[in-house]
Structures are given as C-alpha cells and as structure tokens.
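Exercise 7. Predict the structure of DUF3099 domain-containing protein from Leifsonella bigeumensis.
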Amino acid sequence: MCVILCIFVRGWWLVLCAAGAVILPYIAVVLANVVDTRTSRVERPGSVVPYDKHDEAP
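Solution. The predicted structure, encoded as tokens:
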C-alpha cells in the first residue's frame, strides 16, 4: 500500500509513505522472529522413555 501511494502523493506525504514502506515490513519481520524463551523448554534425550507395548495390561 505504501509503495503504491508513493506513486500518487507529493511533498512530505511521499517521505511518510516511503518511510512506511521500509519501516513497517522491518517491524513485522522482527516481531515474527521473536522467541519467548520463558516458556520454551528443551527436553534432554535421556529423559525420553521408550514405549514398550508388552508392559500394557491385557
């Protein structure tokens, strides 16, 4: 939208649209790549217990 508006507007509006065309996608990419380290937990391979179907009750 901002890129298309750069074709039609003049003056300070052109600067505003050009800045929006650069800044808005940058903010979107940065926010999309944020990782919440408080809730993500990596389990060690040693804590995984293999499933043995012979241990089930009949």
